[in-house]
Every structure is written in C-alpha cells, then in structure tokens.
Amino acid sequence: MDSPLHTPDTRPCSPLIALLGPTGSGKSEVALRLAARFGGEIVSCDSVQVFRFFNIGTAKTPLEDRRGIPHHLIDALNPDEVFTAGDFSRVARPLLHEITARGHLPLVTGGTGFYLRALIDGLAPGPARDAELRTRLLARETRRAGSLHRILRRLDPQTALRIHANDTPKVIRALEICLASRKPAAEVFAGGRDALEGFRVLKIGLFPDREQLYLRLERRLEAMFANGLLEETESILRRGFPGTSKPFESIGYKQALQVINGELTLKDALFYARRDTRRYAKRQMTWFRQEPGLEFFRGFGDDPAVAAKVEERVAAFLSEAVSPTTDTLKT
Questions:
Q1: Are 148 and 141 in contact (CB under 8 A)?
Q2: What pLDDT shows up at residue 12?
C-alpha cells in the first residue's frame, strides 16, 4: 500500500483528495478504489446521504459494499434535522484532521458543490438564522411564487444574479442576510472567508458524456422505483417524520411523496423525476466547470481506464511537495 502522507514540503500540510462529479458519474466506485490503495477514509459531501433512512433514492453505497473502508457523514442525522453548508464545514473539518492523525488519507466525495466550497474556501460570516423571518418569507413565496427573488434583485442585484429564482432556500438566506445586516449579502460575503488550513488539496472531477449520463440516470431512476423507492418513502413517513422534512425535497423522493399523496401517477412521477434529474446533472456540471483548480477526467468512474488515470494522478499528487493547479480536461 502506498503511503498517503509523503509530503516533502516542510509546511505542516496534509494531502486531501476531493472527488466530485454529477450524480451517476461513478464517484463512489473511484473513491473506494482510491481508499483501498492509499489507505483512505471517505467523507461524504452529499446533502441528502447525510440523512438516515434515505437509501434507495440517494444511491448510498450499501454497508456490505464498502469493503470495510470507513465512511463519514452518511446516516448522521434524522430527516427532520437541519444541516447546512456551514454545518457541513463545521463538522467535516475536525474529521479531516482526525483522519490524517490516524495516518490515513481523507477522500471527500460527492455532488454537492456548495458543501465542498464551504469546506475548502469557507463561508463569509453572516447573521444567525432567524426562524420567524424565514417563516414569513416562505409564506410570502408560497402565496406569490418568485416574489422573494424580485425583492432580492432590488436589494442585492449582484447576489440575485447568482441564485436561481426557484432556489427558495438560498433566496431566503440571502434576504435574511440583507435584512439582518442592513447591507447587500454580496457586501457581507466580500468581508472574507475562513478558508481550510493545514491541507493541500487535489480536486478531481468526473465528467462523463452528457447523453450517456442522461441515459444512465434514466435507467437508475427506473430501477429505484422498481426496487422499492415508494415503499421506502412510506416507511420513513411511518417513522413519524413529516413530508415537509428537507430530504423529501430531493429528486425521486419528492415524486414518490406526490404519488403517495395522490398528486401524481407513477408514470408521471417517473417523467418528472427523469426531467428534474437531467436538469440537476446539468447544473452540477456547470457548477463544477467553474470550480477553481478542478482537474476533469472524461468518462465514468466505473470505467477501469478512467479509474486508473485518476489513481495515477492521485499517486503523483501524493509524491509532490506542492499540488499544481490546472483546469485542463483530461482525456
């Protein structure tokens, strides 16, 4: 087994691998392969896999398929708990140090780009969450869809350009910052971020052919519904967790809940789940293309040739004193 902690650099920096890509790109397979070779532990960077009981629709790697490799921030919270990008950064950073203290290589893998950004770059300090204000804002948006984004465009046009009008949680947070701080959120964000220290980071992105990815995602969704997604959703509800819990907003579970509530037929649920998944994967690829320093590899992670190239790049990185930064697309 190669040593993951060979760092000629005299600074106290440990290697950290971030493995990213759109849903269905095969990140888990590559992460397991890297962890097995380099003595790694996997830290999930997924905003839904962190919740217990949401298994089928999140494509969690079953416990029996994890090859004894430690996985962190999977099944860590109950569905009715709140977990933000800031929470992820706060919890994951000590984990990274604990993993390196054990002489292991931390592998952060997932498709939630904002979580990674919070972990590596940090988040600008902002006002605390205001539950009463959030409730009022959400009620307004429910009455008049799109009204909050119009307000944000008036108060903070720069931030409004970066947030989609349908991304209600982010719009609410931006307005919360504007109203509490009495200044645009963009100005608050410009105040500086608490970046991760003590690590040199290699960011790797899997970038499959888009049409092949869409086809794979459609087949995976069909398999999810065929293999018990509706039944799993019902079982979560029977545990007493409300359908308003955050993870029920994710693709697949949202449509399953609508079938259970009699709002959609199974056929329509599949149609909307396919459509929304394609859109989500497209947004992820757009986000990752803009991620600074991310090295892209064409293809799926379960392709042995692609996985071998990624493994070779990681081996080279672990032997370097300083990780080079490049945006070159690997072929």
A1: yes
A2: 63
Nearest to 86 by CA among 50, 126, 41: 126
Q: Are 189 and 211 in contact (CB under 8 A)?
A: no
pLDDT at 136: 93
Q: What is the distance between the alpha carbons of residues 315 and 331, in angstroms, rounded to a whole number?
A: 18
Exposure string of 23-42, with b = 16+ CB inside 10 Å and e = fewer, is bbbbbbbbbbbbbeebbbbb
CB 44 within 8 A of CB 59: no
pLDDT of residue 192: 62
> Under CATH, domain 14-123+194-330 is a member of which superfamily?
P-loop containing nucleotide triphosphate hydrolases (3.40.50.300)
Q: Does domain 131-189 have CATH number 1.10.20.140?
A: yes
Q: Among residues 108, 90, 98, 91, which one has the least CA distance to residue 16? A: 108
pLDDT for position 323: 40
Per the structure block, which two tokens stand in for 62? 């079953």
Q: What are phi and psi of 54, to 5 degrees?
A: -90, 90
Phi, psi of 173 (to 5 degrees): -65, -40
Tokens standing for residue 145:
């869809």
Residue 191 is predicted with a pLDDT of 65
d(CA 298, CA 7): 28
Element (H, E) at 276: helix 266-289
Q: Are 273 and 221 in contact (CB under 8 A)?
A: yes
- Could you tell me the pTM of the whole model? 0.81
What is the block-wise mean pLDDT of the chain (331 residues), using blocks of 10 residues? 44 89 97 98 97 97 96 97 92 98 98 94 80 91 93 93 88 91 82 86 97 97 97 98 95 97 97 96 93 96 97 96 45 44
Domain regions of the chain by residue span: 14-123+194-330, 131-189
Predicted pLDDT at 187: 83
